[in-house]
Amino acid sequence: MSSLESSICLVAQAIHQDEAKNYEEAARCYRYAIIGFKDAADNQKLSLKVRDAILRKCAISEERLKKIDRYLLSKADLRSIFKNCTDSHKNLQNNERSFEIHGIVNEGDRR
Question: What CATH number is given to the structural domain containing 15?
Fold first, then answer.
């Protein structure tokens, strides 16, 4: 199966998953379809008309993927990511203080 044929199948699956409100799977299918469409447009000897049709389908898929990604991001629970970031930052600050207390930090390294 060519990348173009695979991409067409993936878009059909993405639309099906999208309609079923399974947005994570729809996004995954759209992503792979877009890669395949771009590969087909770049690597195959196609007429300009066919290449333009592929790129239009790719653009439509990219627009829908952006909307799904925004929706998924708005629903995502990012608290654990932010907690990990703040914990890491606190650990770095504690390490810097420990180094300063033990005289490990050079004068030029201080902020």
Answer: 1.20.58.80
Distance CA 106, CA 102 (A): 11
Tell whether the torsion through CA atoms of 83, 88, 92 and 97 is positive or negative: positive
69 and 36 fall within a common domain: yes
Cβ atoms of residues 53 and 25 within 8 Å: no
- Are 23 and 75 in contact by the 8 Å Cβ rule? The answer is no
Judged by DSSP in three states, 46 sits in coil
pTM exceeds 0.70 for this model: no
Q: Are 24 and 76 in contact (CB under 8 A)?
A: no
Tens-digit pLDDT profile for residues 19-59: 999 999 999 999 999 999 999 988 768 889 999 999 999 99
